Every structure is written in structure tokens, then in C-alpha cells.
Amino acid sequence: MPYRAPLPEYRFLLDRILGFPAIAATARFADATPETTDAILTEAARLSEVTLAPLNRVGDLNPARLENGIVRTSPGFAEAFRAVAEGGWIGMSANPAYGGMGLPTTLNTCVTEMMSSACLSLQLNPMLTQGQIEALDHHASDAIKALYLPKLISGEWNGTMNLTEPQAGSDVGALRTRAEPLDDGTHAITGQKIYITWGDADFMANTCHLVLARLPDGEAGVKGISLFMVPKFLPDADGNPGTRNGLHVVSLEHKLGIHGSPTCVMQFDGAKGWLVGAPHKGMAAMFTMMNNARLGVGMQGVAQAEAAFQQALTYAGDRKQGKTTLGTGAIIDHADVRRMLAEMKAEVFASRAIGLACACAIDMATATNDAAWRARAALLTPIAKAYGTDTGHLVAHLGVQVHGGMGFIEQTGAAQYARDVRITQIYEGTNGIQAMDLVGRKMMDGGDAAFALMDEMDRAIQQAGPALADLATPMLAATHALREATKTLLAQGMNDRFAGAVPYQRAFARVLGSHYHLMAAHADPAREPLARFAIRRLLPEHGALLAQVSEGAAGLYALTPEALAL
User: Fold this and answer.
1) How far apart are CA 137 and CA 468, in angstroms?
2) Does residue 528 lie within any of the structural domains?
3) How many CA atoms lie less than 13 Å away from 161 in the CB half-sphere?
4) At 157, phi and psi to the nearest 5?
5) Which sequence positions are flagged as catalytic?
6) CATH of the domain at 516
7) What's CA 88's distance to the chain center, in Å?
């Protein structure tokens, strides 16, 4: 089934639920007029549906491959990437001083979702470049910005992030890559990095690697790590790709999914690199790129869920099996199939709303420099990443189930969504790490940002009106339970928090997603049936999840390795 971009959903959420007009009313984003917004969403939808979507299956069947040291990409990817680059999509939110459009992150987030639904493997290329653009704009020297940003924004060059090493995954501080100072002020970078998405491509003029490495005087752990720009080709005096740098692709990983995206093992052998940001402060600079990517990955999950839902809905309407209550014979009229489709739809709406709410908070923080908006954006980032990708995994697997036996057959394409989306729960920080971030770093304010969001939810419940009283009542109870669980969490030691972090994060997302469903039903009565399904059937899960928060870590460690092996 051809993918269709959910433009009505974006317009409804932005205009009637999430307050995007307030963003457009700021001086910073005054160019995001209704006409401009509509034109951007419409054109991005056309590009995604017509140019990118036909390549999704192509990339799956014709993976990127390493041939004589050159990464050969999937057929059609080069032409599609050119269409993305020439349309200015990579630089949508980038600094206009370097050729970007300076548009809101919220619009870019909608575009990220559409392109990810259409062809996740290809969309990873511009998404990582956008993250690098933001990191350089915030942390690099003026000389590096002037040289690299225009090329990255135009799509002539692409950007990567190099964190992981064979022995240093989530424990980034265990990295061994070295940076030796050279006489000309640059550094020689030596080491190996793994899992480097789009680490090379045959259609890019240059690939620019942001690499974490340790200077000779860097202390052990993350506090001694620095960040370096290490291009594949060294720019010449005119800023064009010159001589080859001391790096190469060792191999490409053979993966469960996203076959069209080359995942490289990179070797750096004294490669010339330029320091980005202050010495030993590399993680702070890299986190700028990672936070950008975490929201993007959350929307990748939403995107795959949307595409899987669309296909499942069409299949369920066409497939005839047995007698149904409504007499059509189509499986969509079987109660359990209807249940699965309703769950898919409800989860997609809620996760999209949370992701776009995070983007709106980022834009308001940028436009106003208000600490409260910055705190809201920080709080929502791990929730958006984890819930969006959990939703992608759940919905893609429900899509296979709706297809029945045909879902297990690769020809239908349902299985590809399940394979492709699985990585999103892992990369850019596993969802467990997102949960630990939520209950740890994001609660260092004593829960102020979380409680402020709950206060906002309570006010919306009060405004729901008598027609939605049977939905407002369980919502009020749920926000109260979330508030009390947050207080319990804040009173715990950190390892006890970590033990209940994932259930807490899921419960938070469940309550927040239900909040947006209630707001949607209040804004448009046609959306009440879906809100009723979400609140009456899915929201009750929050109670079981929050019950785990007070258990702490003792019970987990009582299950010794020996006990687990019994």
C-alpha cells in the first residue's frame, strides 16, 4: 500500500492542541506563517510519498555494500538524497547565517517523521547531518563553522557521530581512541569506532566525522573526552575536498533491518582532526548532537508505526475471512482485529503528540530563552525518544499480527517495519538509559518540570467539560497517581530509582499521551471514540507500572545470577 503523509494530524496537533501559533508569533520564528507552514508540510509530504517511499523496499532488498574500499549504496538512494538536499530540507532549522532556513524545530520534526515513514534507511543520512550542524553551530570555532556548515546544510557533505567502540558502548568513558597534538594545532586521531551510521557513501563529496577521543592529558572517564572534526577528505585552501585523510571503512555490519543504511566500522590511523569546543569537554558538545538525534529517533519510531498502521488498516479492510458481526466478511469487522487497529491508532496519536510537544518546547525555549521551556524540552526528550520507539516496535508487530500468516511473508512488507524499527529502541541511548536519564538528571530540579507538566494536565482536565466527564475522572486519578509516584521516586536513592525507571517512564508516557487524547476529544468531538479507547482501555496500565516504582532495587538483586540460572 502506498504511504500517505498524515497531514491532517499535523495540522490538528499543531494548531489546536500544541500551541504552534504561539511559536509562529515570536520574533524568532515569525517566518513560520500559516501559509509557509502549510507549503512546507505539503511539499515534504509529496517528496516523501513520491520520491522516498518507493525506495523503502529497494533498500531492504539491495543493501549497502563495501566494494574495494568504497561504500556502494542502494539503487536510487543517490538521486533521492539529491532531491532532499536540493529542496533545502537538511537546513530547515539551521542558522540562516550559513545557508539554513531558521525554521522551527517543530516543522522539521514533522518532516523527519514523514521521511522516516517513507524510507527510514535513507532518512538517517540527513538526520545525523542535522544533528552535527546543531553541534557545530553551538560549539565549534568560527573557522570550522564557516568551512563546514554551508557544505553540511546544502547536502554537499554529510555528518556522522563517532562514539561507540568495541569495548565502550553505553560506557563512553571507556573509549581508547587517542588524539595526539600536532605542530599545526590539529590532532592525530587513532582508534576504531563501530556502529557509525552513514559513515561513508558513494554519492557524498565528503563525509565529516565528529569523533570522541582522549587527549594525552585527558583524565579517565567521560570528563577527559574531547571532540574532533575529522573529515574523510581534508579541505583545500578553497574549502573543497582535497587529499584523503587517514581513515577508512573496515567493514559494514549485517543487520536485522535498515539494510539500505550503511553501518560502518571506522578505523582512524593518525587522521587529522580539529578540536570542537574546549579540551576535555567533548561530551557536552556531543550531547547537543545526541539530544537532537534522540527526538529524531523518537519520531522515527512514530514514523514506522504510522506506516505499519496504514498498511494494516488497508489490509484489514480488503482481507475477507469468515463471518463478521457487520456482515462484510472483512477482517476489520472482527472484534480483536478492530481492537488491534484501535490500539495502533491510539498509540500513534499519543506518541506523535508527545514528540511534537517536545519539539514545540525546544522552539519556545529558543525563541524566549525561558528556563521553564528549556526544562520542559529536557524532560520530554527521553520520554519522546523511548515512547516513540516503543510505540514503533509495538505497532509494527501488531501490524504483522493483523496480516496473520501474510505478515510473516516478506512480500507484504509488514515484516520490514518490524525489523527496521527495532534498532530505534537501542541507538542514541537505549530506552533503559532514557528512563535512567528521566529519573536521574531530569529530576535534579526536585521534579519541578515534571510537576509543572502535571499541573498543566490537571488544568486541561478541568476544562474538558461535562460531556467528557467519564474520561476526565480517570484522567484526574491518573495524574494524581503519577504525582504521588514522582514524590516516592524523588525520596529514593539513585539505584532504587533506576530499578523502577522504565516502568515510571512508560507510565508517564501513558498518562501524558492520554492527556493529549482528552484534549483532542475536547477540541473535536469526532476524535472522542479514539480518546475513549485510549483512556478507558489503555490508560489503566499506568497503575500496574507505577506500582513498581516503590519496590526499589532490593528485589532485583535478590535474584542473584545463580538464582536466575536455576
Assistant:
1) 47
2) yes
3) 29
4) -115, 155
5) 428
6) 1.20.120
7) 21
* pLDDT of residue 1 exceeding 80: no
Q: Quote the CA–CA distance of 288 and 286 in Å, as a whole number.
A: 5
- From residue 263, give the alpha-carbon distance in Å to each of 232, 259, 302, 392, 393: 16, 9, 22, 21, 21
Place of cell 505499519: 308
Which residue's entry shows cell 476526565?
472
Phi, psi values for residue 181, rounded to 5°? -60, 140
User: Is residue 33 in some structural domain?
Assistant: no
Indicate the residue type of 289.
Answer: M
Concatenated DSSP letters for 440-490? Answer: TGGGTTTTHHHHHHHHHHHHHHHTS-GGGHHHHHHHHHHHHHHHHHHHHHH
Phi, psi at residue 210, to the nearest 5°?
-90, 120
Residue 251: phi and psi, rounded to 5, are: -165, 165
Give the angle subtended at the CA of 427 by the CAs of 126 and 256, to the nearest 5°: 90
How many structural domains is the chain composed of? 1
* Of the candidates 83, 103, 75, the residue with the CA atom closest to the CA atom of residue 91: 103
Place of cell 501490524: 399
Does residue 95 sit in helix, strand or coil?
Answer: coil
3-state SS class at 20: helix
Q: Is 329 helix (H, G, I), strand (E, B) or coil?
A: coil
User: Structural domain of residue 498, as residue ranges?
Assistant: 431-566
Residue 551, pLDDT above cutoff 90: yes
Read off the pTM: 0.97
Mean pLDDT, rounded, of the chain: 97
Buried b (16+ CB within 10 A) or exposed e, 297-324: bbbbbbbbbbbbbbbbbebbeebeeeeb
pLDDT digits (tens, 9 = 90+) for 40-53: 999 999 999 999 99
Q: What is the band of 289 on the pLDDT scale with cuts at 50, 70, 90?
A: confident
Q: Rounded to whole angstroms, how far apart are CA atoms 562 and 566?
A: 7
pLDDT for the residue 386 = 98
pLDDT in tens, 237-264: 999 999 999 999 999 999 999 999 999 9
What phi and psi, each to the nearest 5 degrees, are found at residue 396?
-60, -40
pLDDT of residue 233: 98
553 in a structural domain = yes
> What pLDDT was estimated at residue 550?
95
Render the burial of 216-237: b for 16+ CB within 10 Å, e for the rest. eebeeebebbbbbbbbbbbbee
- Altogether, the residues listed in the chain come to a count of 566
Please check whether residue 63 lies inside any domain of the structure.
no
d(CA 174, CA 496): 25
